[in-house]
């Protein structure tokens, strides 16, 4: 779900200033990935292994990306460098997305007030 910004009581001038600041800041991050980094622990196939007594293997980190309902792409992040890259890429996406969502809500409020939106 999108973050909801409280804009109804914000002045039109303040909305326009916030919009201008967002437009200056919002550069499409070239390495953005819309996904999640998830941590997993697991058991192996060797029955005498300690993982079957509760000491599971891991943590393992995966990049998971939901492409459509029931269609999830997932792969193991094998190295700390890959994990860091994935965290940076997903954070870049989320930061850009939050800015775009805020811009959308500001534009909706300005449009509701009769602003031509500069189009
Ligand atoms: Zn095991």
Helix content: 25-40%
Which sequence of SSEs, written as H and E, runs from N to C? HEEEH
Computed CA radius of gyration, to the nearest angstrom: 21 Å
The whole-number mean of residue pLDDT values reads 94
Total DSSP helices? 2
Number of strands: 3
Largest sheet: 3 strands, antiparallel
Uncertain spans, ≥5 residues at pLDDT below 50? none
Structural class: alpha+beta
Distance linking N and C termini: 27 Å
Q: Per DSSP, what share of the residues sits in E-state strands of 2 or more residues?
A: 15-25%
Order of strands in the sheet with the most strands? Answer: 1-2-3
Which ligands appear in the coordinates?
zinc ion
**Which word captures the global form?**
elongated
Brief write-up:
Helices cover 39% and strands 21% of the residues.
Can you characterise this structure?
- The mean pLDDT is 94.
- α1 (12-25) runs antiparallel to α2.
- The chain has two helices and three strands, in the order αβββα.
- The longest helix is centred in the C-terminal third of the chain and has 33 residues, at 80-112.
- It is of the alpha+beta class.
- It is 39% helix and 21% strand.
- The protein starts with 11 loop residues before the first helix and ends in a 7-residue tail after the last helix.
- It has a three-stranded antiparallel β-sheet with strand order 1-2-3, with helices on one face.
- β2 (57-68) and β3 (71-76) form a beta hairpin.
- It has helices spanning 12-25, 80-112; strands at 36-42, 57-68, 71-76.
- Zinc ion binds next to loops.
- Zinc ion is lined by residues 43-44, 46, 49, 51, 57.
